[in-house]
């Protein structure tokens, strides 16, 4: 009896949402699928009912929210929030008298409305800033975990999903159905220096005494790691190594780390582990162990090698830094209301896990501030808002070092963090995160100005 109560109250939504549950169709026979809106009430998905009673799912913003909101099609199934919130959208909390009257009349009840945390204006700004580049953008609130924008490009138009299905599925070059924000796996490049720096801070209490003379490259055991553009950074400490994104210095740091403890730090930051996410995602990978070769340790310390991660995961690490080390559980649904706007339930911010101490977060914030004030992210300095961040480039081809992805991750209003933003663009020109940091600047300018 106890299990029946648990099943019907706690687990009901999970099983109703399962694509294998035939009862979903029974719900749809009695309820007009509810709407999905952004946090300001802009409709992102709704069901249009024609005079003959036929229903069509309509997405007013076209491709803008294609990956995060997803699609709902009777033949192709559902993705994104359309799938995750299927139970709520096919549930009607209309006034009970109205529901009784509809039953007598043989009419359907109107499904509930899912009010997301997404911001249509910010989503549009992110999409416009990305332009035609492949890649992804994730924007979150630093202190709550609310996801305000999630863009993946190339995108698709969910209004045309049925007619475009064959083309979308065979486009292996662009993979438009892939949500690059959560399921794209990339070499992190220099943004991974956040992880390496934290490992060094944890292993060396005198980390502030670190010194290195950069000559433009480092060679150990026949492995040479050059700095970007063969730049000679000269004498550096840990802070300036981070601000300058000095590959040579970080390769040197990697060789000084206890590798099992390095791996432990990475796994504290959720590498090789499950991520808190309502959307489908791909785990990030950290592969170093005590048997790793010198070359792989050097490459990993600067964000290359076999280390991979998603933009979403990078945003979570950045959010934890901005929030004093505590990762807030990310979420996409603010509330559920009936179709008249009466609230049925509301989600509230809650802590997920402490990824680092507040002192460690403060130290990384100082280093990330130096990136903007005096390092590779200086294009974001002197604006109406302050930024702490990290730029990065990641080689994705063994044939040419010029074939790179461009990264930026950071947060705004450093003294009282507000927005977390992570950007990746595929196939950049090899500059130190130049394309991604410029895109981040355009998005933030749109938000603040």
Structural write-up:
The chain has helices at 2-9, 12-17, 23-30, 80-84, 86-89, 96-105, 120-130, 161-170, 180-183, 193-203, 238-243, 247-256, 259-268, 294-301, 311-322, 358-374, 434-448; strands spanning 31-32, 36-37, 43-49, 55-58, 72-73, 77-78, 109-110, 113-116, 135-141, 147-153, 212-214, 217-220, 223-226, 234-236, 326-328, 333-337, 343-346, 351-354, 387-395, 404-412, 419-428. Helix content is 35%, strand content 22%. The mean pLDDT is 92. The strands form 7 sheets. A 6-stranded mixed beta sheet has the order 4-3-2-8-16-17, with no helix packed on it. The protein is elongated, with a radius of gyration of 24 Å. The protein has 449 residues and is α+β, with helices and mostly antiparallel strands.
How are the secondary structure elements laid out?
Layout: H1 2-9, H2 12-17, H3 23-30, E1 31-32, E2 36-37, E3 43-49, E4 55-58, E5 72-73, E6 77-78, H4 80-84, H5 86-89, H6 96-105, E7 109-110, E8 113-116, H7 120-130, E9 135-141, E10 147-153, H8 161-170, H9 180-183, H10 193-203, E11 212-214, E12 217-220, E13 223-226, E14 234-236, H11 238-243, H12 247-256, H13 259-268, H14 294-301, H15 311-322, E15 326-328, E16 333-337, E17 343-346, E18 351-354, H16 358-374, E19 387-395, E20 404-412, E21 419-428, H17 434-448
Parallel strand pairs: 1-7, 2-8
Antiparallel strand pairs: 2-3, 3-4, 5-6, 8-16, 9-10, 9-21, 11-14, 12-13, 15-18, 16-17, 19-20, 20-21
Helix pairs in contact: 7-17, 10-12, 10-13, 12-14
């Amino acid at each position: 009896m106890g299990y029946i109560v648990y099943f019907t109250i706690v687990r009901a939504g999970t099983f109703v949402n399962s694509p294998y549950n035939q009862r979903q169709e029974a719900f749809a026979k009695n309820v007009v699928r509810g709407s999905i809106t952004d946090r300001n009430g802009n409709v992102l998905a709704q069901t249009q009912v024609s005079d003959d009673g036929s229903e069509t799912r309509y997405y007013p913003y076209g491709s803008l929210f294609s990956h995060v909101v997803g699609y709902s099609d009777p033949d192709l199934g559902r993705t994104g929030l359309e799938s995750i919130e299927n139970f709520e959208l096919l549930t009607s909390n209309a006034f009970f008298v109205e529901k009784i009257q509809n039953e007598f009349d043989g009419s359907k009840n109107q499904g509930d409305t899912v009010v997301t945390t997404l911001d249509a204006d910010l989503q549009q700004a992110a999409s416009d800033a990305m332009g035609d580049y492949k890649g992804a953008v994730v924007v979150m609130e630093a202190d709550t975990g609310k996801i305000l924008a999630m863009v993946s490009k190339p995108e698709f138009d969910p209004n045309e999903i049925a007619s475009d299905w064959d083309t979308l599925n065979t486009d292996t070059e662009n993979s438009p159905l892939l949500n690059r924000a959560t399921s794209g796996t990339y070499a992190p490049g220099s943004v991974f220096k956040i992880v390496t720096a934290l490992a060094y801070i944890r292993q060396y209490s005198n980390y502030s005494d670190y010194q290195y003379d950069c000559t433009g490259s480092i060679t150990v055991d026949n492995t040479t790691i050059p700095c970007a553009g063969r730049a000679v950074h000269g004498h550096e400490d840990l802070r300036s190594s981070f601000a300058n994104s000095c590959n040579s210095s970080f390769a040197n740091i990697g060789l000084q780390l206890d590798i099992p403890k390095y791996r432990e730090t990475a796994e504290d930051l959720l590498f090789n582990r499950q991520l808190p996410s309502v959307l489908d995602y791909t785990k990030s990978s950290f592969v170093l162990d005590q048997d790793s070769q010198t070359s792989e340790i050097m490459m990993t310390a600067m964000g290359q090698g076999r280390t991979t991660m998603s933009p979403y995961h990078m945003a979570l690490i950045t959010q934890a830094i901005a929030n004093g080390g505590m990762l807030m559980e990310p979420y996409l649904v603010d509330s559920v209301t009936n179709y008249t706007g009466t609230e049925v339930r509301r989600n509230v911010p809650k802590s997920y896990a402490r990824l680092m101490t507040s002192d460690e977060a403060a130290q990384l914030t100082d280093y990330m501030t130096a990136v903007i004030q005096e390092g590779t992210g200086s294009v974001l300095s002197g604006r109406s808002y302050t930024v702490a961040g990290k730029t990065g480039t990641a080689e994705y081809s063994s044939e040419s070092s010029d074939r790179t992805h461009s990264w930026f991750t950071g947060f705004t209003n450093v003294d009282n963090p507000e927005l977390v933003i992570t950007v990746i663009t595929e196939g950049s020109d090899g500059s130190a995160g130049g394309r991604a940091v410029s895109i981040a600047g355009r998005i933030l300018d749109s938000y603040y100005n």
